[in-house]
Amino acid sequence: MNIMINQLGYRPGTIKKAVFSGSSDADSFKVINQDTKECVYSGALSEEKYYEDADENVKIADFTDFNIVGKYYIEDSLGNKSFTFDIKENVYEEALISSVKMFYLQRCGCELDKVSADIFSHKACHNTKARIYGTDEFIDVTGGWHDAGDYGRYVVAATKAILDLLMTYELNQNAVEKYIPQLLDEVKYELDWMLKMQDEKTGGVYHKVTCAGFPGFIMPEFETEELIVSPISDTATYDFVASMAHAYRVYSKIDKYKGDADKYIEAAKKALAYTENNTAGLFKNPEGIVTGEYDDYSSLDEKFLAYAEMYKTTGNKEYEDILMSINLDDVPGLFEWKDVGEYGFYAYITAKEHSNKEFYDAVYKRLNDHAKSIIESVDEDPYGYSMSGKYYWGCNMGVANDAMLLILMDRIDGTNTRKKYVSSITDYLFGNNPNGMCYLTGFGSKSPMGPHHRPSVAMKKPMPGMLVGGPEPLLLDDYMKKNFDGIAKAKCYADYFDSYSTNEITIYWNSPLVFVLAEQV
Ligand code: G3I
Ligand code: 9MR
Ligand code: ZN
Fold this sequence. Notes:
- The structure is a single chain.
- This protein starts with a strand and ends with a helix.
- It has a five-stranded mixed beta sheet with strand order 10-9-13-12-11. A four-stranded antiparallel beta sheet has the order 1-2-6-5, with no helix packed on it. Strands 4-3-7-8 form a four-stranded antiparallel beta sheet, with no helix packed on it.
- α3 packs antiparallel against α5 (183-196) and α6 runs parallel beside α8 (300-314).
- It is built from 17 helices and 13 strands.
- By secondary structure, it is of the alpha+beta class.
- Helix content is 40%, strand content 10%.
- The protein binds ligand G3I, ligand 9MR and zinc ion.
- Ligand G3I binds at residues 147-148, 150, 152, 292-293, 336, 338, 392-394, 476, 500, 504, 506.
């Protein structure tokens, strides 16, 4: 039996629950002050219930009513204890700062010095010109962030991270200025790399730059194989339009970035013109390239997103006409790298003007239906899991995305009704889950020690501030295949460096977490 809590702590006024996982004879619990060992709150445990996702029984300790600032742990009537946790206003500040610092630590093409990167400092990496696949032409695509545990740089993946971080700025400027004032400079580092991924001649955007394969567990400057730019794709080009159009909206309002902003919007227009005159098609790894594919089955959601961002930024009705000509039912939703529809829906809903109420309502409904299903899932699940028992590669991102959607819906409606669900979803990520794992490296009492992240493996220490992927019941790497056959889906997670399907990290799993934390500081 284990007592699962949010290991970072709880803010006063939020729902506070601990889950007792595994059968237990205890029927009551106490909240104990860590320093004085005094019992400050006690209550009855809920009835024991079978929780299929984790194949175990659970009971819930609800101490929502207890709001006094301090350090505590939970103890049951048999003497079992939880980790220590805080109740205080500032539980997420450090996590927010660290999860933004992660982007700096993922920087490619520049030296990271000892002072700012500590053991993760390294010489400039990946700074040679890259071969355009299948040609003898070489271009400069230096800069940007390493995608993940590997050192690839992928336009589709980058877009999700950029949009989340720009929305963080747009929605919580005060928190950004107070805790993560470097945010726009950090995002600019990625945007300026992305500009280089645009083909000067046509305006189309190359899908990615990587070596032909993945390197061993080495620091980035030691990956010195030839860099190869993979072909232009429709998804990368539309995503590029969206990133640049969104960036223009943010950067053009700030004097020192005006020159950059102008470049961004020009690049967006040029890329959009490319899509109007060409079809590059969906991306598939070309022969000989085996790095992250970021493939897709539809680019209609990317198209919707591109036009919605262009419409919101420029107010040009021609863009809105194109949006209204798209059959909404065919647009994949979500805030994922592959399904980006919800970014487009949100951009459209928050544009200044809407010509057609019916269309507006239909777009709003797409967002709100999803938000409703998230709330239902959080309500029904003992851990407040938001995705109705669905686990997949990177599902911790899905969880953070869900909290993000609830926050955005509250902003659209001008309400606060979804706030309590946001805090429960956050509790899940920081330890109130079937693995009792605080999924952010370097935080909480039990967090990943073996993330699939080359610098962490090379330096034999997890880099802090990284959100790992989470359970993947399809067992998609050898370690999971060997060791997790027959294990309940919510438990298919291994804190092991070679389990890339459950314990990798990426920029676009961190980015929705940044958004969600900036809302709660
Ligand atoms: O589309 C299906 C969906 O219909 C289904 O409900 C869901 C649940 O099984 O799966 C969805 O497909 C998944 C797809 O991602 C989209 O989410 C696949 O099963 C899953 O295998 C696939 O995983 C991707 C993985 O690469 C393998 O391609 C991850 O999302 C993606 O984050 C990951 O990205 C890698 C890069 O390739 C390389 N760099 C590291 C990065 C992180 O691991
Ligand atoms: O390290 C790679 C990781 O970033 C990817 O997400 C993953 C799936 O594409 O692949 C990892 O690389 C492994 C490769 O796929 C198979 N051989 C072992 C590699 C490192 O564990
Ligand atoms: Zn690099």
